[in-house]
Amino acid sequence: MAIDSPPLSSAKVLIIGGGMGGLATALALARRGFTNITVFEMASKLTEIGAGINITPNLARLLDRFGVLNVLQEEAVVIRSANILKGTNDEALSFVKYSYMEKDFGYPFFVAHRTSLQRALIVGCQQSGVVDIKLGVSVTGIDLENARVQICPTAEREVSTTTEWIQGDVIIAADGVKSATRALMLARSGIKDEVEDTRQASYRILVRREQVLDKPELLELLDGNQTYRWIGPRRLIMSYPILKHTLFNIVSAHPDSNFAEAPSTSWTTRGSKQRMLEVFSDFCPRVQSLLKLVPDGEVCEWKLRVHAPLPTWVDGRTALLGDACHPTLPHIAQGAAQAVEDAAVVAIALSKITTEKDIHKALRIYQLLRKERAEFCVKEADANGREMLLSDEEVAERDKRFREASKDGGANPDKFVDKNTQNILFNHDCEKIAFERWDELWESEELST
Ligand SMILES: Cc1cc2nc3c(=O)[nH]c(=O)nc-3n(C[C@H](O)[C@H](O)[C@H](O)COP(=O)(O)OP(=O)(O)OC[C@H]3O[C@@H](n4cnc5c(N)ncnc54)[C@H](O)[C@@H]3O)c2cc1C
Fold it and tell me: Where does the record place the FAD-binding domain (predicted)?
């Protein structure tokens, strides 16, 4: 599976976090021929909260090269068209056929259960034979000067004094939006780490196929190959079938009002079904019927957080990756895709160098190759969220543009289906660019200091 053995193939790579970013990094490094890769994940089991994820062509391309797209495809659904509907009355505002998707971007637009993507990455790591995933192990300290991590069994984290320091050659911190590594890096530059509250929250829920067998108007949503975005004043619902059409995934964005009641440390909470129904009480009967099917106790609510662009992603031989350095709103579905792009590029950067003293420089080139792109996605997601979450008084002009948009792809007020935005997001081949720009960046003045 490995492409070539890189000069530093036996470098000890320590990865903090076994989320999509951490697992993708382990797999990308294995594919480039690295043989000493350890992932530390604080959770004792690799589970993903049940929900769907969009596998856009830029992500599918990388999964294919990593040799795991086939694993994902066993459970994924191909999306053939996208519906934008008015939340309150179900009026079709815009319909886009994805007939151009494979032709223009090389891959279909897939949607999948998050566990399907996770499974594909884990299968790839296991098959490589060189990735050691240590579950139930928390990283409790990082020595940025010397590329060491301090670990402790998560179960004993609060009580144990028996911690162990592990020496690495390079550390990739894929420790998510709450990244302790980021806080430490910023503190060393005298900057306080502050995650931004977007005042938006998100319900993530699933409806099972058995629940709609006697409801043809809902069954057709589950059996079809379409996404549905219902937009209403200040709130939206995005939904699509996953897991070979056995589940219908529903994810919302709405003003955050419930977290006042949640523990102050929590960014996720078990949502109240009653409250969710109230939030969408003016939405159309089709949405109401879907939401009513969700069993009590299966409503999860997320507080949506972002972070201002960081001055740097790199400190010594440690680099941040994924949500740790560019957490994003979900409105253009690029969070995991960008984490996997990071993974592919950091693996290339490390594979290019011949001595350990160049690890820091390689990580800085990784940052140069990735930061602008990832931060562009964060900005686009934010802008799209604002456009989709307008108040009732503001929507008339936008809805006019929706109605005028082409069915075959073209300008569309929703950047998620806008062809120009898709060109930028989906055509981007981060690996090709990394190889093409490597020599220029290696020689660049900016890195010579
Ligand atoms: C509602 C919603 C919908 C979304 N939809 C999409 C979508 O359709 N498409 C898409 O591409 N993206 C989507 N995203 C974004 C995507 O889920 C994230 O961007 C992505 O999962 C980030 O991966 P990550 O590995 O960087 O972080 P995480 O998934 O947060 O993983 C971090 C991991 O690090 C572990 N960890 C943290 N600290 C430590 C420590 N000290 N020691 C050991 N382990 C540690 C954590 O336990 C966790 O497993 C969505 C996000 C939300 C909220």
Answer: 11-379
